[in-house]
C-alpha cells in the first residue's frame, strides 16, 4: 500500500510514534517528575494552582509550536516535490 493510500485510510499518524530511547530524554523526564513532586510537597494550594496554570499553558504552547513545525515541514516537503517533478 502506498503512503497516499495509508493516508486516505487514516493509517498515517505521526503522533503515534514513540519516543526515541534517549538517555537525555529519560534524564529530563526524571527531572520534571522529581521537581513536580518536590514542589507539590512544599507549595500551598494557591501556589499549586499557579504552577498548574503555568504547566498547562507551557504544554499548550509546546503543542501549538509542534503543530506549526509540522505544517511548515509539510509545506517544505510539498515544495520539494513540486520542484522535483517540474525539473526537465
Beta strand count: 0
- Runs with pLDDT <50, length 5+? none
The oligomeric state is single chain
In terms of structural class, how would the helical and strand content be classed?
Answer: mainly alpha
Q: Round the mean pLDDT to the nearest integer and report it.
A: 87
Q: What is the general shape?
A: elongated
Query: What's the alpha carbon Rg, rounded to whole Å?
Result: 20 Å
Walk me through this protein's architecture:
It is a single chain. The protein is mostly helical. It has three helices and no strands. It has helices at 3-8, 23-42, 45-86. It is elongated and about 65 Å long. 0% of the residues are buried. The model has no long low-confidence stretch (mean pLDDT 87).
Question: Main attributes?
Answer:
3 helices, mainly alpha, 88 residues, 77% helix, 0% strand, elongated
Amino acid at each position: 500500500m502506498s503512503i497516499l493510500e495509508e493516508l486516505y485510510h487514516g493509517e498515517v499518524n505521526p503522533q503515534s510514534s514513540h519516543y526515541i530511547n534517549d538517555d537525555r530524554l529519560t534524564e529530563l523526564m526524571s527531572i520534571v517528575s522529581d521537581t513536580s513532586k518536590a514542589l507539590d510537597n512544599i507549595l500551598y494550594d494557591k501556589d499549586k494552582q499557579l504552577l498548574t496554570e503555568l504547566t498547562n499553558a507551557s504544554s499548550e504552547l509546546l503543542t501549538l509550536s509542534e503543530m506549526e513545525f509540522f505544517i511548515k515541514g509539510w509545506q517544505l516537503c510539498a515544495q520539494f516535490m513540486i520542484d522535483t517533478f517540474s525539473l526537465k
